[in-house]
């Protein structure tokens, strides 16, 4: 109980410290999602704290991801008229995005010669963790490895998303949101909210749709990817 | 102080809907996660005016703005997989980074192209 509580407090303190640091030095590689876990893991290793002890507290923070996902109903509801207007755009972009996510993950895994258990675990990496793990299990991957790939995807997307938006001159709010939510699930969505509330709404929709589409497409596309 | 209290209550309300979602998922053996089911329940309740936006807005915006915090424990979990990371880490990174770039570029460009087409604007480069 004491360990769990101190792990929660330690995580929150380090998170706010890294958030402050990020705000001072606006450098993409200093994202709190990269800095805080690095500090925490070095503390765990340095003080010989077992991961399972840390997780007894960390789990409670991780659980808050569930109400956070439910909370995305708010931006979706607020921008429902815009969403309805662009229904076709959203459907086409998301179908393309999900297909490209699955095929490119498979293709690049082939290129770097990863064995098929890793390849299958990488396929659903661009969607939110619980569904990614379920998809991974369905297609024969290793769900815990998938959970790691999902996190690394989130970190990559946080860093790369804004760069891509800048270099490709993506000016449409809808396109920015869809790109971030499709490419980097919840982490991308939190970045989209930094751009603005409309981007955030588009990203939350993209996150939800990406998860549902992947659930349907992954079992169909997996045999083709494995060829 | 009042704001903190309301935020906490609203977070609890959202948590409650996530739990309902979890129950529905496990009873009906749905392949989606409970929180997504919870999201659709809340969306429906908002749409049919059963739930007022003001009853959850504060809690939702707090959770969304601090969302990275909730990802941190699972990011720390990576240290459990030292061996696999040491052996294949660079391959994993190459796949994830290249694929994320590809997905983001394609999704962004397709969406932007269609929005422009819809609004009848010529595509600006």
From TrEMBL, chain A:
Annotated compartments: Membrane
Which UniProt keywords are given for this protein, alphabetically ordered? Membrane, Transmembrane, Transmembrane helix
| Keyword Membrane among record annotations | yes
Is Transferase given among the entry's keywords? no
Q: Return the GO cellular component terms, semicolon-separated.
A: membrane
Q: How does it sit in the membrane?
A: Multi-pass membrane protein
Residue intervals passing through the bilayer: 27-48, 60-77, 89-111, 131-162, 205-226
Q: What InterPro entries does the record tag this protein with?
A: CidB/LrgB
Tell me what this protein is called: TIGR00659 family protein
Origin species, per record, is Sporolactobacillus putidus
UniProtKB/TrEMBL annotation, chain B:
Q: Which UniProt keywords apply?
A: Cell membrane, Membrane, Transmembrane, Transmembrane helix
Q: Which residues cross the membrane?
A: 28-48, 60-80, 92-115
Domain of life per record = Bacteria
Membrane topology of the entry: Multi-pass membrane protein
Which cell locations does it reside in?
Cell membrane
Its principal location?
A: membrane
The answer to whether the entry has keyword Membrane is yes
User: Cellular component terms, GO, for this chain's entry?
Assistant: plasma membrane
Entry keyword annotation includes Cell membrane: yes
Query: Which protein, by its recorded name, is this?
Result: Holin-like protein CidA
Species the sequence originates in: Sporolactobacillus putidus
In the UniProt record, the gene name given for this protein reads cidA
């Amino acid at each position: 109980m004491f360990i769990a509580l101190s792990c929660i407090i330690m995580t929150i303190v380090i998170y706010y410290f890294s958030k402050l640091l990020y705000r001072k030095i606006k450098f993409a590689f200093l994202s709190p999602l990269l800095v805080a876990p690095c500090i925490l893991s070095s503390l765990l290793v340095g003080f010989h704290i077992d991961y399972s002890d840390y997780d007894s507290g960390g789990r409670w923070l991780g659980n808050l991801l569930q109400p956070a996902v439910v909370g995305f109903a708010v931006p979706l509801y607020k921008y429902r008229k815009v969403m309805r207007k662009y229904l076709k755009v959203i459907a086409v972009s998301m179908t393309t995005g999900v297909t490209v996510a699955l095929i490119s993950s498979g293709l690049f895994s082939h290129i770097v010669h990863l064995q098929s258990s890793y390849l299958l675990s990488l396929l659903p990496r661009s969607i939110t963790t619980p569904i990614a793990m379920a998809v991974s299990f369905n297609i024969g991957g290793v769900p815990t490895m998938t959970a790691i790939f999902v996190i690394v995807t989130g970190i990559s997307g946080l860093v790369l998303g804004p760069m891509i938006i800048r270099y490709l001159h993506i000016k449409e709010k809808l396109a920015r949101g869809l790109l971030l939510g499709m490419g980097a699930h919840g982490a991308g969505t939190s970045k989209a909210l930094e751009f603005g509330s409309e981007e955030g709404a588009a990203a939350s929709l993209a996150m939800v749709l990406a998860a549902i589409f992947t659930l349907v497409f992954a079992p169909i596309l997996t045999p083709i990817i494995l060829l | 102080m009042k704001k903190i209290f309301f935020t906490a209550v609203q977070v609890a309300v959202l948590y409650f809907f996530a739990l309902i979602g979890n129950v529905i998922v496990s009873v009906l053996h749905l392949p989606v996660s409970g929180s997504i089911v919870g999201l659709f329940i809340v969306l429906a309740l908002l749409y049919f005016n059963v739930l007022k936006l003001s009853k959850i807005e504060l809690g939702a915006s707090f959770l969304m703005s601090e969302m990275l915090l909730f990802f941190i424990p699972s990011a720390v979990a990576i240290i459990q997989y030292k061996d696999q990371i040491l052996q294949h880490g660079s391959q994993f990174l190459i796949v994830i980074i290249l694929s994320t770039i590809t997905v983001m570029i394609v999704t962004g460009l397709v969406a932007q192209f269609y929005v422009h087409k819809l609004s009848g604007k010529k595509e600006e480069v």
